[in-house]
Design a protein that fits this description.
six-stranded mixed beta sheet; alpha+beta; Creatine Amidinohydrolase, Chain A, domain 1; 609 residues
């Protein structure tokens, strides 16, 4: 029925079948006189999505989550994952070969300090860890009397005989009709940041920063139009972009060479060494730069300055062209979402649809727009107890039929050239229970509180986060993820540095796009999440003594009225919901067929207390 999807549903290799790989890896470590090794889920730039050639953790352990780390010692092996992946990891790894441990509290270094013994030599690949991460490992080793060894050549690659080749997706130019700002102007702004840092050059180790600065896109990793690359931006003179030439067409090369020299990736080390020998101060992004770069600069006599990448904040604040683009992308996405929601309401109550059917249908409706470049992440389609798994990914093995009485949680997004979308809706299949309606309404009230928030300039995401949780807290419940993350402009759907969470310390600025996604998850029963994207805009407040900001809701899709307990809403909350549905109806109505219009009218009809 559906062809050439951007997503697959195959079950990865797991468990006992992979244990032979662990044995072969231990033999390789012994040959290199190492008693242990650290394998992170990372590439050289700490990307959220990594190329198949970089999936070392999944190849060795079977664990396929987006965050994790393994420590292999000659006597034992441990896989460290955060709370999102505890259940998944237990199912995917061989319990006799691996223990599953927490990634955050306590961190892996605590485990290492207890399990290393004096004289141990723990290896790590300095290209796959930041300097801060390497320093934490070194401290744990020192506590146990062990030594941390930076290896030259990853030993895991020596036993991964069928390792895929690195990606070579073609680079495309992200024109001014989408970017809204030419490279020369961006480089001027970056130059001012380099002056503030007081350094001689800035290394862009985050490919997102390179893509944004030089207005290019690519396809080297899943779901993010990213060309893997580095750049070196000096205080004076032309920058250099380090990228595999095989990715560049003549037009892409010409585009880059207007503002930068273009070199192969392996020449970055030579360039940095040359610069460092003069004693130069070189700024590195503490969050993405590999420890190998910091070591190289120091060894050559330079001064590495690790801190926040100034490009991340410049990139987060969208210009007027990017803002208009994302509005257009969300209007386009709204048509696909409404068609999908009408389809689910029509077909799911019969029990004929599965979670995979929902994923395939939604992607197909998005493809029908004629503008879809990719999904922005693998769609989360969870019904019943699967909906309670926050980062659930349906496979053919886990695929569950959508049945009356269930909730269907579907979290999805699209990559369009003019904008990136991310939206979650929770749908009642048949008659929902009173408990479902209570929990849904508490989540909705938190969502509305964020959407209606007014906040002075300088407010951080941490200061807003409580608004989303207050009605859940009143019932003694909560959700364990952040309330919102930043979103890129035809780049990563999860973009820093701003976020709405307990850890969100970056002030929110006009032009930033963030998600608003409170939820509730009852283990083995159901999950609820309501997510829209929000644009930070200015607000006129009579008598205000400082600039005030607000959110403009970008996402346009009906919120399931059947799950709303009207007795719990205030008049202002009900007005927000009715006004929102009025916007959805007027935006989508002209673009759908008659049957869908009938459904849309009913799904967005005003509610009254």
């Amino acid at each position: 029925m559906y062809e050439a999807l951007f997503q697959t549903f195959e079950e990865p290799e797991t468990g006992i079948a992979l244990t032979a790989r662990l044995s072969a890896f231990r033999e390789e470590l012994a040959q290199r006189h190492l008693t242990g090794f650290v394998v992170p889920r990372a590439d050289q730039q700490q990307n959220e999505y990594v190329a198949p050639s970089e999936e070392r953790l999944a190849w060795l352990t079977g664990f396929t989550g987006s965050a994790g780390l393994a420590v292999i010692l000659s006597r034992e092996a441990a896989l460290f994952v955060d709370g999102r992946y505890t259940l998944q990891a237990a199912k995917q790894v061989d319990a006799k070969a691996w223990s599953v441990e927490p990634l955050v509290d306590p961190p892996p270094e605590t485990w290492l300090a207890k399990h290393l013994v004096a004289g141990d030599r723990l290896g790590f690949d300095p290209w796959l860890h930041t300097t801060a991460a390497a320093e934490r490992l070194a401290a744990a080793c020192a506590k146990a009397g062990a030594e941390l060894i930076a290896v030259d050549g990853n030993p895991l690659d020596a036993v991964w005989t069928e390792r895929p080749a690195p990606p070579l997706a073609p680079v495309t130019v992200h024109g001014p009709q989408f970017s809204g700002e030419v490279e020369t102007e961006k480089l001027k702004r970056i130059g001012l940041e380099i002056d503030k840092l007081g350094v001689d050059a800035l290394v862009l180790s985050d490919s997102h920063a390179v893509a944004w600065t030089f207005n290019i896109r690519g396809g080297d990793v899943s779901h993010t139009p990213l060309p893997l690359s580095y750049a070196l931006v000096p205080k004076t003179g032309r920058p250099t972009v380090f990228i595999d030439h095989r990715k560049l067409s003549n037009s892409a090369r010409d585009h880059l060479e207007h503002t930068a020299d273009v070199a192969e990736p392996d020449t970055l080390l030579f360039k940095l060494t040359e610069l460092a020998r003069s004693g130069a101060g070189i700024a590195l992004d503490g969050a993405t730069a590999p420890d190998a770069l910091s070591r190289l600069i120091s060894a050559a006599g330079g001064k590495p300055l690790r801190g926040n990448d100034p490009v991340s904040l410049l990139k987060a604040v969208k210009n007027s062209t990017e803002i208009e683009g994302t509005r257009a992308a969300h209007r386009r996405d709204a048509v696909a979402l409404v068609r999908f929601l009408a389809f689910i309401d029509r077909e799911a109550p019969s029990g004929a649809l599965t979670e995979i059917d929902a994923v395939e249908a939604l992607e197909t409706f998005r493809r029908d727009t004629g503008a879809l470049k990719d999904v922005s992440f693998p769609t989360i389609s969870g019904t019943g107890p699967n909906g309670a798994i926050v980062h659930y990914r349906v496979t053919r093995k886990s695929n569950r039929r959508i049945a009356p009485g269930d909730l269907l949680l579907i979290d999805s997004g699209a990559q369009y050239e003019d904008g990136t979308t991310d939206v979650t809706r929770t749908i009642a299949i048949g008659q929902p229970s009173m408990e479902m309606c209570d929990r849904f309404t508490r989540v909705l009230r938190g969502h509305i509180a964020i959407a209606r928030a007014l906040f002075p300039d300088g407010t951080t995401g941490a200061q807003l986060d409580t608004l989303a949780r207050q009605f859940l807290w009143q019932a003694g419940i909560d959700f364990e993820h952040g309330t919102g993350h930043g979103v890129g402009s035809y780049l990563s759907v999860h973009e820093g540095p701003a976020r709405i969470s307990k850890l969100g310390t970056t002030p929110l600025r006009r032009g930033m796009i963030l998600s608003n996604e409170p939820g509730y998850y009852k283990t083995n029963a159901f999950g609820i999440r309501i997510e829209n994207l929000e644009l930070v805009v200015g607000a006129d407040v009579a008598g205000s003594e400082k600039p005030v900001n607000a959110f403009e809701t970008l996402t346009l899709a009906p919120i399931d009225r059947r799950l709303v307990d009207l007795s719990m809403l205030t008049g202002d909350e009900l007005s927000w919901l009715n006004d929102y549905h009025d916007r959805v109806r007027h935006t989508v109505h002209p673009h759908v067929d008659e049957a869908t219009k009938v459904w849309l009218d009913a799904a967005t009809a005003p509610l009254s207390l």
